[in-house]
Amino acid sequence: MNKSSSCRGATFCTTKILKILHKLPERMKPNNEECEQCVKILEELENIDDDCERHGIKFVKTQDLKIADKFGASNYPVLMYFENGIGGVFEGDLEEEEEVLQWLIQQRTEDRIELITRVMLEKMVEETQYLAVYFYKQNCNICEQILEELEKIDDECDVYGIHLVRIQDPQLAKRYGIKTFPALVYFRNGNPLLFEGDLQNEQSVLEWLIDDDNRELADEIEAVNERMLARLLNESPFLAVFFYDEDCPECEEILQALEEIDGEADLFGIDFVKICSAQAAADQGLHTLPALMYFRKKKPMVYDGDLTQSGKVLDWLTSQDVFEIRNEIEEVNKKMLEKLLEENEYVTVFFYEPNAEESRIIMEKLENIDSETDNFDIKFVKMADARYARKWGVTHLPAIVYFRKRFPSIYRGDLHSEADVLEWLRKNRFRQPELNLFMYALMAIMVAFLIYTGFLLQCFKTSPTTVVVQHQKQT
């Protein structure tokens, strides 16, 4: 696995591979027999020092208890292997130097899930953004079988910026609500999430780890790497990406402002992520950072305003000019539809069933009249929400609902005839002004009648005789 330098606290982080032997000092030994064991192991390990060197593994030893404690060593002697700051503990027999050598070579050349200590885990939880921890017990056949399966997705996890490690610590497991073994806990910026699926299905585990809903944290913009960004661009129809670099004095202030609208953007169906990669920015044509780019089905737009003004950024992200894709019926959720109904007098919604063949066919036909509805000043969108459709009287999908000032009208004609749909929309759109004139005239007649009736009643109260005489004279 390509270990990152997220475990920055390790004092033995080097560009080369580093292996450490912890040995208890003489004065700490309870008896001479234990000391003799350390000496014997050291003599055996001396036999493989040259082999380790040939494989690029630097072999060192230490009697410093402070260093041992720093990495959580509790039983001595212990052998640890470090690569780019992330350590692993040897579980085998230290007196079998060939076994040790094979393990070290395997760690150096293959992708393995490292065994870590409690101290290492606590440090990694603090410093690693995405960390998956496999809790298991010794002498557990199922645990070992599942571990072998998880080894198959270790590479893929690393590609998505997720560190996968393992630990044997039943007491620590209780802290995270683990009652049975094995178990997998996913830490997102230190926030734990327990996997409740089938651990024996490694692909299911991988999908769970990279799922946006599981990676995402409330009110916090998710950090991604290049691989995850590419995946989001393929899968997310509305994606806002904040590009920044480490040497950016104003980026922290901008991130704090943008995190104020992260939750609101999510309600509008907009995924919000951040990436610290000059290469990823250059791939999108950005050469000046920081920058905010909004992708609507991979079509990018760059925000040119003040990024610290979070309210204006949100208005831009949810504005119709940015939201609309020409000659395509845009997908909306409830929050976006409510905004459209507030801002537009005429809105048409195609309610459909996802993964339904009839809905797909009708949708393709309706795409042909999207530009014509724009000419009628009608906003045309689509929505896959049967429950919300029932709010407007729709009992069967697919269906079309036309809104004028939020007042709904359901199309009862042939949905497969886009020409009929367009004609129905046109008649509804341009019938309305005539109806308005009729309503105003009707209201004027009613007001005049009420005024005249009030006048007659007033006259009857003051002088009924006079009213009758005048009526007779008029007759």
From TrEMBL:
Keyword RNA-binding assigned: no
> Residue ranges of the Thioredoxin domain?
194-342
Q: Does the keyword Zinc-finger apply?
A: no
What range does the record give for the signal peptide?
A: none
- What keywords tag this UniProt record? Membrane, Transmembrane, Transmembrane helix
**UniProt cross-references to InterPro entries, sorted A to Z:** Thioredoxin-like_sf, Thioredoxin_domain
Q: Which PROSITE patterns does this chain map to?
A: THIOREDOXIN_2
Taxonomy, superkingdom: Eukaryota
Which residue windows are transmembrane per the record? Answer: 437-457
Instruction: Read off the Gene3D superfamilies from this record.
Output: Glutaredoxin
| Name of the protein this chain belongs to | Thioredoxin domain-containing protein
Species in which this protein is naturally found: Acanthoscelides obtectus (Bean weevil)
**Which taxonomic lineage is given here?**
Eukaryota, Metazoa, Ecdysozoa, Arthropoda, Hexapoda
